[in-house]
Amino acid sequence: MSARYQLSGTTAVEISAGIESGIRTGALSPGAALPPVRALAADLGVSPATVARAYQELRQRGLLVTAGRHGTRVRPRPPVAARRSALRPPPLPGARDLSRGEPDRRLLPPLGPHLAALAADTGPSVSYSDAGVLPELAEAARARLDADGVPAGELTITGGALDGIERLLGAHLRPGDAVAVEDPGWANLLDLVAALGLRPIGVPVDDEGPMVAGVAAALAAGARALVVTSRAQNPTGSAVSAQRAEALRALLAGRRDLLLIEDDHAAELARVPLHSLAGATASWAFLRSVSKPFGPDLRLAVLVGDETTVARVAGRTRVGAGWVSTVLQRLVLALWSDPAVDELVRRAAQSYEQRRDGLLTALAEHGLRAHGRSGINVWLPVPDETSAVTALRDAGWAVAPGALYRIAAAPAVRVTVSSLHADDLAPLAAALAHAANPTPPPGFPT
What we know:
39% of the residues lie in helices and 15% in strands. It is α/β, with parallel strands linked by helices. The strands form four sheets. An eight-stranded mixed beta sheet has the order 4-11-10-9-8-5-6-7, with helices on both faces. A three-stranded antiparallel beta sheet has the order 12-15-14, covered by helices on one side. Strands 1-2 form a two-stranded antiparallel sheet. Helix 2 (37-44) crosses helix 3 (48-60) and helix 14 runs antiparallel to helix 15 (425-436). The chain is globular and about 65 Å long.
């Protein structure tokens, strides 16, 4: 814990408020260790039970995490707005940042022409009573999903994939319920599960998606929801294969006590077939976001599912945010309807595939087996994440430590390929190889 910040308080409420204040101001940085319960209790002159209650309340809200022998720490990305000074520092000057997991802005479709067309044909303002899912957008979305074999009878719109997942989990689960999530898996989802007070159960992942034995174990452990990434899984790039989908469908068939959520966030950028699990359980939902192919600022996702599940999400939206902007819906519809945009997205997907496969090949030449079947990331197992990230930083490359995405999975680093050029692949692979297999320091012979 930072020596600049002293914890205080005589009640659990005061202690938890002080810790939250430290996180908000940046005095307690992400990953910072907190004192053991008994040590802090002695310092504050309170009972260990008081400190334990404070820690428990912050864990349930997703601000703290218990890391086994490493004790209690601030989560890497706690769900509380922090001062800008508390945000993660930028890479070293001159370093290449491959840590962000974002698409290449140069490959995103330009929005200006379509926004200009919308501005020229705005029509009357939408009223509160008329707002909702535009029928023409719903029709276009159903056609696109039908082409991939996804049943799309009941449909609604959410403010992006994570917004949809949050609404789904909130509609079906209560704090303390268990959720089966991929391990390694999407960091934002792990943070969301913690913020909702849910209990994550990690499901091991290989190149073909969540492993059947892991899903079975999570179900046996009481999981009430299962979140699966269809393709371009973040961080590993896995994609559910036809064989894996068949096996998972057989395992999940007829389950009435499980909410199945599928996230097809890459959508048109994924150059592998979609093998959906839609309808395998009584309660299910399939989400497809537009952010990765068309731009991160387009906060819209199509959500389809069984009648009850979609009705719960749509009803909760109606009494909260109300609806997703119809201006945004019209913009997305215009992008979907433009053949030139389709061609740009197709070329972007091909470019990402070439960069990803090129890096995997370059790493294989160094004897390293990395993972990246689809999407914009490569997952490289390493013996020690801290030393690997440090070595790469010193070599001018910023990558994401695997700890952000892991529950019990082995150490690794995530490399985003979206900004790479062909000339980058060989030097990056060499730096990754050195980081994964560092030369031991000189010393006495053994």
